Known about the structure:
Layout: H1 2-26, E1 31-36, E2 41-46, E3 56-60, E4 65-67, E5 84-89, E6 100-108
Parallel strand pairs: 3-6, 4-6
Antiparallel strand pairs: 1-2, 1-5, 2-3, 5-6
Amino acid sequence: MKKLLVKVLFAIILCSGILIIFADLLKEETFTIIEKDTDTFIWIESNKVFNPSYKRALLDIENARIINANGEEIDYRELLIGDRIKAEIQPIAALRDPPGLVAREVKLLN
């Protein structure tokens, strides 16, 4: 009886762990602003635990189009620490750690 209970408990823990991993891998990646370095550079951190494109990076928003959730263009000064954003990032990143990225478009999420 005890062995059966341990096996069932192990199977439940294993299945729930697999479901949590798949849920994280399939969710849309957003970033949180963790620091504003200058007016045109912000430090971002990914919301994904497993396989983020960039866990933490420096994002250049100088030439980026910055919009709010309604699609209206806003000024970069409206981006605050702790805001969640979705960034369209150019494919070339500076080869350093953490990476230096350049954004094409930044969308401020609610």
